[in-house]
Write a structure and sequence with these properties.
alpha/beta; globular; single chain; 519 residues; Leucine-rich repeat, LRR (right-handed beta-alpha superhelix); 2 domains; 17-stranded mixed sheet
Length: 519
Amino acid sequence: MDQPVLERSLDLVPIEIWVLCWTLCSRRQIRRLSLVCKLFRSISLPFLFKDQSFHVAAVCHDLSRDNWVDRLHRMHRMAIRVERLAESPFASLISSWQVIFGNEVPVGSQHKDIENIHLLDEMRIRVLDTFRKTLHRYPKLSSLDIQKNIVDAAFLTALASLSELKHLKLYIPDKLVSYSRKHVAMTSESLQSLDLNRDTLLFDVFSRDIGLPNLVSLSIGIVRHTEQLFSHIIDRFPHLESLAIDSIQDTSPFPNLPRYCFPKLRSLTGPPSMIEALAPNRAISHAVVRQTWRMDHLVPIDDSKQARIALSRSSGPVTSLVLPGLILSLGLLSSVADLFPDLRELTLTPARGGPVWRYGSCCRYFRSLDTVEADRRLPILCEETAFDASPLDELSDAEEEVETVGERTITAPRKMNGGHMEWECIKTLIKWMSLGLFTLPPNIEVLHIDGSLLYEGMSVDEEYRALAGLTRDFPTLREVQFLSSGWTWIRVSQEESSTLWKADRIGCVRILLPDEGFR
């Protein structure tokens, strides 16, 4: 076909078809298609530039003599990309930036045996400075996620210039805050969602007088000044619909809050004391109860019992609930079902059996530098050819083979009387489900059992058996996740005598229902 005729034919294809191609293609397929079709490339450009990110911390992580040169070239390409992107016409297409700068400790201080490791630190500073100085060049930016950036008055001025910014996430350690409080008075009328790692950022960065009049979602990681925080936000955020606090590190009692505060609150996340204070008489539909931690052990489960009672007194039905550190029992499950009959989504976290150390030993082995010859390589960094030596895996058009998985069929057991059983192990959990003893609200749709702190996991066969029991007893269930496997089961289809479930990397399982059908 002649080229002009081909181009006219492509113009007749509705844009919806091109967008559908975008959603169904892999990244490498899109690359190949855009190379041969200018029309597709012009349509897909807004999608390509919409979300941007770079991860400086990942480049510096696990650095060694074997990989530092490759990491340096990666950082160099990152610096060039940030500079060119800010100066290009595509900057106006960017609506989302996620930036993780990482540890401020120089990499060179940890690798004395690499003579020119300072080049990596210099390139990291170049990336940091370039991004901070060019932030104002993204006029359409609506979402910004910055972690471990140096915050000063100049950065906040650039931040305040983003007139369309709606979602802001700042995770800034104390030692990276270099500004004077008297010079800071950031305001934003467009900001709707704010996520901070600590409460002091809220006090220091945002003006008390004007502030954030349209903020509807506030999330704070650590709160050390509870009374000061709530006195700061009660009158300033009248439209708040979602409030989340991960941890309150304040020994003083939770402050008494007026009944009129946060009248539009619908989503609430926090420790039990906060749930008890804010849940009653507010139309809470989504709640996450955070675990209360001490240095030596977990607070007893009674600490969250009062939070559950307070949530049941909200003025609206609770449809989504996350409960922490539970000592599972049949009585507890029955209590949750009775307190929250309208629940659609439930996440349970069984209490751990003992201390779990998440981090490696502090005693690490370091080889003596006296016996290691210094690495004196001096990589050549050229701006014009920086992208000519990109790794092959970034340029290859090879597609990964998708492993085909079959369908397995199992029969759901008939319900039996299992008697009185307390939580002992995962075997007990499976037994409750298979015997029909696992009590849930009648219209439950999503069930997650988070066991990331447990030593013991569930095998695929055990998940099959648990899924069979749940399928028999809860016909509205459409999504299930067990413990720490990471496999999410999605109900694909339901017939009168069987139900088909599917999970990525496992395949499908068809549950054959007993003669009596659902309960």
